[in-house]
Write a structure and sequence with these properties.
single chain; 694 residues; alpha/beta; Luciferase, domain 3; GMP Synthetase, Chain A, domain 3; 3 domains; eight-stranded mixed beta sheet; 22 helices; 28 strands; globular
């Protein structure tokens, strides 16, 4: 009888555990002002958090506090460059390979001295607080030091991607009237190329000591000096700090730009501090034992927040690059260590493209080995997946330890073997990649949703949430509200979940766009309670536990896997210039790195071309399927794209030719002949899937 009862009770306890876990409330409905909608707050707080540290209101104060508290601990680490070598590939091309040594570390106390000296050096070379400083460089130790030094002088930093094109670079510097530019030797070349177009640059500080002769001041009208010389000048001639207030603008961050030139978003110290404070409460046990691998662009809000967060809790930051991340990365000399192996980080931020690359590399190696190794990997993966789907707790038992030892230890070694938490943002992460990381690396992923306009703060998935496809509950610094979008058919009264445009409110919502009041008024609102809101243009829905899922976008702008924005309408307008195109719909999938297109061909133009080429065909649909036809039309599209100066990622990599025209009668275009994007996508769903699969 007892055995019978036990047989009933044990499954019942498991069922109750699972159900209670599923019912865990992560976000709660909130009573907020502003536009009517369905608002949710984080279950941890009753009102948005502004600072997690008593008396701290700016990033400058936060950093100084951390340096006092962790004075002798290691803070910043950079790998020694042993040699650069050229390696020939099988096709005869040569590639640069780096032989990098171990990390060389500096303490919090030493970094604070460098920051204070560089801040004094800026004053000594004539930079005043009213002038802005642009940092145009790859992520590195000096980037962080320069940022903190500017904060100690209450100087606004203009952040510019190191990969930004010359037109956008010129626009960013001129619009902000940047008086001083801090850059690396490589970026200095781009700067000298546009020197004649720059209106305000008076000083250039080169992070590298070997300043090229063609960057001299006599040619370009600016004074140029090295980073180390500015620091030395400040050390010998110290100047008192001029600390900012919470409402002062810390950063003008230029986004990568969805259409046209990039926009500068104004971020105050209080804005960034709110997000840093909120994320600190989410990541479990973040502290002095953590080692962070920094390789994403610090000109991106995700990386800037992450580095300030790690420094605030006494952790270590080791610098790397995407091209030297693992032992098998492109620029790592064969037989030497990548950044992950050398650093052995415990936490890292990642974008989906990086995690997808790790996943593909592992599966490629597993398939290449085959045999018993492949079979064992398959069994281990299936068992762990089963455990996670059944109960997250079950995935962390003795069986997990066994599979880690037998199978997944080598996979975990790819990223150093000690990863305990990964923060992922910047673009949607596929469910397959999220599951792979959970299983093979044995680490939870905090998938976040946010924008530059909200200091990366929006939502963030909890470490104990095993679900995929969602971006978690609101961060403790935000309210997330859904408002109706009738034109798209989304309503907060929809069942089974409320749906609508995502609007983010809280202390992390930024001031707006620099010198663009019209766009600021369009996207930002302040309600009757004084809460500032940003209208994202994204469409989401709330699950019963308060977690958000992104399901659509109001505008026809899509962010690809690597984070590039594609304006579908802009590209379509350019490609319509091809004589072979009667109509076209570009399609961009956030989980892909390229675009595809459906092309309705122009009958006369294609007939004429086929006749000249002597190509025989029975009907137009047969002609559209021919390989030579596809090549010709695609070449024509590329030609038009280049004429319109489109970026490579905006040009469709693959196309499907359609012989039947899109008419209002077919329901694929409006009476005004504008394409009905969603209906076309659904109608040709199989064709689009084949294009991505081919």
């Amino acid at each position: 009888m007892n055995a019978y009862i036990a047989g009933l009770v044990v499954p019942l306890v498991i069922l109750l555990f699972r159900n209670s876990n599923n019912r865990k409330r992560r976000g709660l409905p909130a009573d907020v002002g502003g536009d009517p909608g369905f608002a949710v707050r984080n279950q941890r707080v009753t009102s948005p958090i502004t600072s997690a540290w008593e008396g701290i209101t700016t990033l400058a104060e936060l950093f100084e506090r951390a340096c006092r508290e962790h004075h002798d601990r290691l803070l910043l680490g950079t790998r020694e460059l042993i040699s650069r070598e050229m390696e020939a590939s099988s096709d005869g091309r040569s590639f640069e390979k780096l032989h990098l040594g171990e990390y060389q570390w500096v303490t919090y106390g030493t970094v604070f001295e460098s920051v204070s000296s560089f801040a004094s050096g800026l004053a000594n070379i004539g930079h005043v607080r009213e002038e802005r400083i642009a940092i145009f460089a790859e992520t590195r130790e000096e980037w962080f030091i320069a940022l903190q030094a500017c904060f100690r002088r209450n100087v606004t930093v203009v952040t510019i991607y190191a990969s930004l094109g010359e037109e956008a670079l010129c626009h960013s510097l001129n619009e902000t009237e940047a008086a001083t530019v801090i850059c690396g030797r490589k970026e200095l070349k781009s700067l000298t190329n546009i020197a004649g177009q720059l209106d305000s640059v008076k000083r250039v500080i080169c992070i590298d000591n070997d300043i090229p002769s063609d960057a001299s001041s006599s040619q370009h009208g600016w004074t140029i000096t090295s980073f180390s010389d500015v620091e030395k000048l400040g050390r010998e001639n110290p100047v008192e700090a001029d600390l900012p207030l919470s409402a002062d603008v810390a950063v003008i961050m230029y986004t990568s730009g969805s259409t046209g030139l990039p926009k500068g978003v104004m971020l105050t110290h209080g804005n960034i501090l709110a997000t840093v404070s909120a994320v600190m409460t989410i990541v479990p046990n973040l502290g002095t034992k953590d080692v962070y691998l920094a390789y994403l662009p610090m000109a991106h809000i995700l990386e800037l927040v992450a580095e300030n967060l790690i420094a605030s809790v006494g952790g270590c930051i080791g610098y790397g690059t995407p091209l030297t991340l693992t032992d098998s990365s492109n620029k790592v000399k064969r037989g030497t260590k990548g950044d992950s192996t050398a650093l052995m980080p415990t936490v890292m931020a990642a974008v989906p493209a990086i995690l997808d690359r790790v996943r593909e590399g592992v599966f490629k190696k597993v398939n290449a080995k085959g045999g018993l190794s492949k079979k064992l990997f398959g069994i281990a993966y299936a068992r762990r997946l089963q455990a996670i789907n059944g109960s997250w707790f079950g995935a962390w038992g003795l069986e997990k330890a066994l599979w880690n030892f037998l199978v997944f230890k080598k996979v975990q070694a790819v990223l150093g073997g000690r990863i305990r938490f990964i923060l992922c943002g910047g673009a949607p992460l596929s469910g397959d990649s999220q599951r792979f990381i959970n299983i093979c690396l044995g680490a939870p992923i905090g998938q976040g949703y946010g924008l530059t306009e909200t200091c990366a703060g929006g939502t963030f998935s909890d470490f104990d949430d095993p679900s995929v496809g969602r971006v978690g509950p609101p961060l403790p610094c935000t309210y997330i509200k859904l408002i109706d979008w009738p034109e798209g058919g989304y309503s907060t009264t929809d069942t089974p979940m409320p749906r609508g445009e995502i609007v983010i409110g809280g202390p992390n919502v930024t001031l707006g766009y620099f010198k663009n009041e019209e766009k600021t008024r369009e996207s930002y609102k302040v309600d009757e309670r004084g809460v500032r809101w940003f209208c994202t243009g994204d469409i989401g829905r709330f699950h019963a536990d308060g977690c958000l899922e992104i399901i659509d976008r109001k505008k026809d702008i899509v962010k690809l896997q690597h984070g590039e924005y594609v304006s579908l309408g802009k590209v379509e307008a350019a490609l319509l210039g091809s004589p072979f195109v009667d109509n076209i719909m570009l399609h961009a999938d956030p989980f892909q790195t390229y675009c595809v297109a459906l092309v309705v061909v122009s009958h006369p133009a294609l007939d004429e071309w086929a006749s000249k080429q002597g190509i025989a065909y029975s009907d137009l649909s047969e002609l559209c399927r021919k390989e030579e036809t596809l090549k010709e039309v695609h070449a024509s599209l590329v030609k038009e794209a280049k004429k319109a100066r489109l970026e490579k990622f905006e040009i469709p990599a693959k196309i499907k030719l359609l012989s039947d025209p899109w008419t209002p009668e077919s329901g694929l275009v409006t009476a005004a002949l504008k394409i009905k994007r969603e209906i076309i996508r659904k109608t040709f769903q199989e064709d689009l899937l084949k294009l991505y699969a081919s």
